[in-house]
Specification:
Elements (H helix, E strand, L loop, with lengths): L2 H8 L3 H9 L7 E2 L5 E2 L2 H15 L4 H8 L1
Amino acid sequence: MEIRELANITGVPPKTIRYYEQVGVLPPPARQSNGYRIYSTKDINRLNLVAGARQLNLSLDDIREIVA
């Protein structure tokens, strides 16, 4: 699935997903030949975990340690 589908499923905006990848909370996604990001069910689960942790006011540094 592409980033817009991931955003629709998780409720996390694409801009935030890209930011989480940039700061290392989410791993870099696979890419299609055209450069589009490709996500899997594993990415949905991890993003839901990160989003839930953010709702609990955990810092990105804390979340990065948890998912490592």
